[in-house]
Amino acid sequence: MDPITFSIIRHRLFRIIDEAVITLKHVSGSAITNEGHDLMVSLYRADGSLLMGGVGFLHHLTSAAEACQSIIRRFKGDINEGDVYLLNDPYTAALHTSDIYLVAPIHHQGDLVAWSACFVHVYDIGATNPGGFSPDSPDIFTEGFSSPGIRLVEKGELRHDMLDTLLNMVRSPEMVALDIRSMIACNNVAKDRMHRLIDKYGHETVDEACSTLIDQSESLLRDRLRELPNGSWQSRQYLNVKDDVFRVVLTMTKQDDELVFDFTGSSEQAQYAINCTKWASLGGLFAPLFPLLCYDITWNEGVIKPITMIAPEGSIVNCIRPAPVSVATVGAIQSVNNAACATIGKMLEASKTYAKEATAVWHANHFAVFKFGRNQHGGEAIGIFTETFAGAGGARTFADGVDVGGEVPNPISRMANVESVEAGFPIRYLFRRRMIDSGGAGKYRGGAGMEFGVVPHDSPDGGIHYVVSGKGDDFPMSDGLGGGYPGAPNGYVWVHNNEVDGDESNVDSKFAQTLDELPGEQEAVTWGVFPLMGEDALYIRWNGGGGYGDPLERDPQAVLDDCLAGVVSFDSARRIYGVAFTDENNAVDARDTEALRNELYAARLNREAAE
Amino acid sequence: MTQRVSEYLEIDDGHTKCRKCGHDLGASKDNWKNGAICREGPMDGAGGAPYRSADFVLLRLFICPGCGLQLGTETAVKDDPYLEDIMGES
User: Fold this and answer.
1) Given pLDDT bands bounded at 50, 70 and 90, which one contains residue B28?
2) How far is B31 from chain A (nearest CA, A)?
3) Hey, are the CB atoms on B69 and A255 less than 8 Å from each other?
4) Which residues on chain A are in Cβ contact (under 8 Å) with B54?
5) Distance from C-alpha of A184 to C-alpha of A24, rounded to nearest angstrom
6) C-alpha span between A55 and A65 (Å, rounded)
7) 3 state DSSP class of B21
8) Do B89 and A346 lie within an 8 Å CB cutoff?
9) Chain A contacts of B50, Cβ < 8 Å?
């Protein structure tokens, strides 16, 4: 077709999604949506296959395609103009129950021509624990409202009986209603803009452009794969809950123009809600694949065709109903993200042409800490610490990772301002800053994560509670690349201070600037519900990105700059990077640095340093 | 003709070698890590203060026996096998 028209239509499709995302953010009242950007909007073809993947959490792009196809199968012959369908069952297509899909058919002159789909992590879904991540749920039955597909809007009319049934099963129904309405509005905008596009260019032309776009993406990815070396690369991600350790093991094999992701060897499904279903694993591996291999290729069905996934049934990456999955997005799905990022990074690094595109693993351990309770305004408040979306960049083959630089699976993730959080929750931040020594050491350093501490403040009930889940705090998960260290592990600390009396009580904690300045007993918390009451404090730090290359090859001046910026300690500078400084710690001592590095090389080889 | 494996490794004449010193780490069809020195120790403090992990979490550093270059790293639980990266025919 005419290349100019093709290009215009392609860019219009991008813009349709952008506009729909803006709508979602503006209508939803949830910080997780409009501050953290835990959302996704994409367009699908009439058969439900991916047409144009949007931004947000990318592991939803393929799952929402399955959601569309599931709705097509379930409502065959009865899909009408103006309908909107809701689906959030993880064993049908969704990732976990709190990530609700709303999918809407787009008709033109009576014919079904496309679908729009979106999700947000709704304010609550009625699981055992508030907020959707439910560590106390032993099975899917206790993870809240779950539907394999219902018609929420029929021919343009909201079915209040359906919506009210959902709202009757969740906490803070007014906020969940806003989330649902934001998704309806989002789909309406997508549909309206698609209508305008088709009205302008005609259905046949738009359809041809869409078909060409998919063929083009497949062709471009296959060409790229042929340029990359053949081989197989492995990655292993650990998850720990309480005293149990689980593994996601990946062998990625690239042959000619195809990639196989084989998760054989991964742990059997867990009793904890860290499992994920096969749709979630598929999305999990595509989330890093889209930006790392297809950064200049349109994300659609064409990209999916050269990829095969093997996920053993009954494993942690393909669990069997009724295994619990509410923590999946920060559990096995993120482990799949990380493992795929690591293997793709190694494959890219093996290519002279593409080595500059390789990256160590970014922010690999989300901390899903949901605070809940009555707030200073008398309302019920539930919300995640959106700091988990701030992330940390993995080091590249030519540059450091970006400090607090987000994550690969969500190109638009970010965190809320401290003031926004304090306005909605009865807590006060004591400090929030980059975490020293959190970025993996290397010739290029992994981006730093952060640390923060909070205390109750102005609460009508003396404080609130919080739900902690995820993959634990024992394992570093942001793997290094090419000899770089992994980023530091997460840490969650409940500081008990209610037992301290009199002059030793928490007066100083109101001005504490570090974890160690907080008086009281420190207890690591990784799974369950805990109080932030009275004089309690909560401290969280999150992982840095993985490093790249041997730390002894890092430019000593860059190490000094990191030390002066408070991102690397002087102890690590000497011990890991082998950099010595002048007495004032304000300049590199080149001679001592050379001697120190020779010592460290020799120690690695177990012999005396050369004179 | 050599095949790049990483910035520090390449395959030359069917063998994986260190690109800095040329040390032979074994046949390219085998795991090059078996030809490297593996320094395995607790993660605790390995990378600085925030690396506070349980005793069973290990950091493996794979070192070139020829020049001491750090070729690769892995996080592992004791006795878990080395990860394998094997380049094929290209």
Assistant:
1) very high
2) 11
3) no
4) 474
5) 9
6) 15
7) coil
8) no
9) 435-438, 488-489, 491, 541
Q: Is the torsion defined by CA of A384, A319, A243, B42 positive or negative?
A: negative
Taking the mean position of all CA atoms in its chain, how far away is CA A165?
30
Pair of tokens at residue A154: 């029929």
**A343-362 per-position pLDDT tens digit:** 999 999 999 999 999 999 99
Q: Which chain A residue has the Cα nearest residue B64?
A: A605
pLDDT band at residue A611, thresholds of 50, 70 and 90? very low
Q: Which residues of A touch B32 (CB under 8 A)?
A: none
What are the distances in angstroms from CA B80 to CA A237, A247, B58, B74, B84? 12, 11, 10, 11, 12
Work out the minimum CA distance from A233 to partner chain B, whole angstroms: 4
**Quick check: A236 and B5 CB within 8 A?**
no
Number of other residues whose CB lies within 10 A of the CB of residue A589: 15
Sign of CA dihedral A69, A70, A73, A78: negative
The ipTM of this complex is 0.98
Which are the contacts of A419, defined by CB distance < 8 A and separation ≥ 6? none
What is the helix (H) or strand (E) element at residue A21, kind and residue range? helix A3-27
Structure tokens at B33: 């890590």
Task: Report the DSSP beta bridge partners of residue A318.
Answer: A315
Q: Which residues of A touch B7 (CB under 8 A)?
A: 349, 355, 397, 482, 549
- Estimate the crossing angle of helix A203-227 against helix A3-27, to 10 degrees: 90
Query: How many residues in chain A?
Result: 611
Residue of B nearest to A603 (CA): B68
The answer to whether A482 contacts B72, with C-beta atoms less than 8 Å apart, is yes
β pairing state of A307-310 and A258-262: parallel
Tokens of A345: 């990074």
- pTM for this predicted structure: 0.97
Q: Which two tokens stand for residue A389?
A: 């979306």
Q: A450-456 and A537-541 as β-strands: parallel, antiparallel, unpaired?
A: antiparallel
| Chain B positions in Cβ-Cβ contact with residue A480 (cut-off 8 Å) | 73
DSSP A294: -
Q: Of A240, A352, A343, whose CA–CA distance to A293 is shortest? A: A343
Helix (H) / strand (E) element for B17: namely strand B15-18
Answer whether A235 sits within 8 Å of B83, measured CB to CB: yes
DSSP state of A359: B
